[in-house]
Recover the amino acids of this structure.
C-alpha cells in the first residue's frame, strides 16, 4: 500500500460512523464511546455508544462492533460469515446478541455491529458465585433448551452456503481431521502424542451411528455465554460454528475441562447433566442419556487438546509470543488424564 | 561454581513476590496476567526439580514396541520411540487384550509424570469410575 493510500484510510471510528449513518439511513451517526473490550485471540470487540440522528433508528444505542484481530486462526470464520451465522441463530430463536449491520467496504478490516447485551461470562465467577446464578437447575435447563433451538437449523441454508457440505459421518470426519492436525504439528515439532492417538483410535472404534447434521456452535460452553440476572442472556463467539452431529455440542458443554471451579457440576460448572439434557429434550432436542454423551466428552477433550497444541505452537514458533498461549501447552496433560479416565477403565 | 541462590530458589522467590506483593495491588485484568506469570514460574521450577525419567520411558516404550530399543541419545531415542508408538496406536495395534492393558499402564505413567510438572493438583483427584 502506498503512503498516500495509508494516509487516506479513515480511522476506524470515523469509518464506523460513516458506515452506520448509511446503514441506518440517518443524517448523522456519532460514536460517543469507543472502548475496546477484552479481545479474544481471534477477534476484537469494541463497545460503542452511538447517537443516531434522523432515520428509523434515531436515538442512542448500545452496540458492539466486532472485527478481526491481527492473529486470526485459519479455521475460524470471517466476520461476514459470523454475521450470517448469528442471523440464522437469531432467526431460530437462539439467545444471541441481535446482529444488526455488516460492513465489508474494503476500507479496513471487515466488521459487524450487534446489540450490546449485559451480563457476566467469566467461568470462574459463574461456577462459584451463587448470587450470579441463584437457580442453577433453571440455568442448566435454559442452556439445554437454547441449544435445542440452534440444532433445529438443518442444512441446506442458502445464507450459510460457505459452511460447505455437511459431513455424512461427523465423528469419523472429525477424527481424521484431528489426525491430520497432529501430523502437521508433529512434522514441525518432531513430537508425537500417544495418549491423543489412543483417544482417537478409541473414538474411531466406538463411533456411534451418525445423526442427520444440524447447525452446531462448536464452542458452546461456560465462558462463551452471558448470564444476566440469573438467566441466559446471549451466546457469544460463533466463529467455529458448522454442520455436524448435535451430540458434539452436548459433549462439549458436559466435558470436565469447562467446569471451572466446580468439576462436580457436569454442565459447565453450572448445574447437573440431567437438568441440561432435560432442558434440551423439552425444547425439542433429541432425547439423550448422559451415558451417550461420554463418547462426545472424549471427543471434546481430544478437540481441546489439539487446539491447545496449535495455540502453544503459535507461541513456540514465534509467530505470536504470548504467556497465555505458552501456558496452554501445560493444559494438555490434564486433558490426557481425562481421556485415559474415560476410555481406559479404572486408572 | 554457580552462584547461590540457585535457579530453583530464584524462581520460587520471584513467584512468591508476584503473588504476595504484586498481584494484590493490580486491577483484575492485570492481576490475571500476574497469576499466569506466577504459574509459569511454578511450572519452570517443577521442571527443574523433576527427576529425569527419559531412560525409564524409553525402556517402557521399547518393551511395548518389542523390536529393539530406539537409537541415539535419550532425546533422539525418546522422540523416535514415541513417534513409532503413536503410529502403531493409530494402526489399532493396541486396541484389545493384554497389549491394550500394557499400553494404558504406560500412558498413565507418562501422563502422571507430565502432570507432576504441568499441574500436580490434577494428580490428587479421586479415582473415577468409567462408563
Amino acid at each position: 500500500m502506498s503512503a498516500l493510500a495509508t494516509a487516506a484510510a479513515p480511522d476506524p471510528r470515523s469509518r464506523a460512523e460513516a458506515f452506520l449513518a448509511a446503514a441506518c439511513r440517518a443524517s448523522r451517526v456519532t460514536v460517543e464511546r469507543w472502548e475496546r473490550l477484552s479481545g479474544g485471540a481471534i477477534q476484537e470487540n469494541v463497545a460503542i455508544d452511538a447517537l443516531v440522528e434522523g432515520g428509523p433508528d434515531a436515538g442512542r444505542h448500545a452496540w458492539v462492533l466486532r472485527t478481526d484481530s491481527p492473529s486470526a486462526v485459519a479455521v475460524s470464520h470471517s466476520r461476514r460469515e459470523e454475521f450470517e451465522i448469528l442471523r440464522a441463530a437469531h432467526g431460530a430463536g437462539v439467545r444471541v446478541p441481535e446482529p444488526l449491520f455488516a460492513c465489508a467496504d474494503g476500507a479496513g478490516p471487515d466488521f459487524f455491529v450487534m446489540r450490546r447485551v449485559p451480563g457476566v461470562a467469566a467461568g470462574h465467577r459463574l461456577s462459584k458465585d451463587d448470587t450470579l446464578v441463584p437457580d442453577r437447575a433453571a440455568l442448566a435447563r435454559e442452556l439445554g433448551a437454547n441449544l435445542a433451538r440452534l440444532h433445529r437449523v438443518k442444512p441446506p441454508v442458502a445464507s450459510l452456503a460457505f459452511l460447505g457440505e455437511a459431513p455424512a459421518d461427523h465423528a469419523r470426519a472429525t477424527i481424521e481431521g484431528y489426525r491430520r492436525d497432529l501430523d502437521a504439528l508433529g512434522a514441525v515439532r518432531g513430537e508425537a502424542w500417544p495418549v491423543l492417538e489412543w483417544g482417537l483410535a478409541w473414538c474411531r472404534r466406538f463411533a456411534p451411528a451418525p445423526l442427520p447434521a444440524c447447525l452446531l456452535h462448536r464452542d458452546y460452553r461456560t465462558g462463551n455465554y452471558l448470564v444476566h440476572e440469573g438467566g441466559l442472556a446471549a451466546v457469544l463467539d460463533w466463529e467455529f460454528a458448522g454442520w455436524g452431529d448435535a451430540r458434539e455440542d452436548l459433549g462439549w458443554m458436559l466435558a470436565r475441562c469447562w467446569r471451572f471451579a466446580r468439576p462436580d457440576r457436569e454442565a459447565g460448572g453450572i448445574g447437573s447433566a440431567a437438568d441440561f439434557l432435560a432442558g434440551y429434550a423439552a425444547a425439542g432436542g433429541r432425547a439423550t442419556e448422559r451415558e451417550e454423551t461420554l463418547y462426545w466428552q472424549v471427543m471434546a477433550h481430544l478437540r481441546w487438546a489439539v487446539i491447545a497444541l496449535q495455540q502453544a505452537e503459535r507461541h513456540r514458533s514465534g509467530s505470536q509470543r504470548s504467556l497465555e498461549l505458552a501456558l496452554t501447552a501445560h493444559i494438555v496433560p490434564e486433558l490426557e488424564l481425562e481421556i485415559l479416565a474415560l476410555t481406559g477403565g479404572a486408572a | 561454581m554457580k552462584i547461590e541462590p540457585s535457579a530453583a530458589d530464584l524462581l520460587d522467590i520471584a513467584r512468591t513476590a508476584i503473588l504476595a506483593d504484586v498481584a494484590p495491588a493490580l486491577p483484575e485484568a492485570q492481576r490475571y496476567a500476574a497469576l499466569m506469570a506466577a504459574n509459569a514460574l511454578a511450572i519452570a521450577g517443577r521442571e527443574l526439580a523433576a527427576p529425569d525419567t527419559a531412560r525409564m520411558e524409553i525402556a517402557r516404550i521399547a518393551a511395548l514396541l518389542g523390536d529393539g530399543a530406539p537409537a541415539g541419545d535419550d532425546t533422539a531415542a525418546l522422540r523416535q520411540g514415541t513417534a513409532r508408538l503413536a503410529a502403531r496406536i493409530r494402526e489399532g495395534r493396541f486396541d484389545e487384550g493384554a497389549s491394550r492393558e500394557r499400553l494404558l499402564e504406560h500412558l498413565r505413567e507418562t501422563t502422571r509424570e507430565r502432570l507432576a510438572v504441568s499441574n500436580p493438583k490434577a494428580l490428587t483427584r479421586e479415582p473415577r469410575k468409567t462408563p
About this structure: The two ends of chain B are 56 Å apart (CA to CA). The helical segments of chain B are 7-22, 28-49, 54-65, 74-91, 97-118.
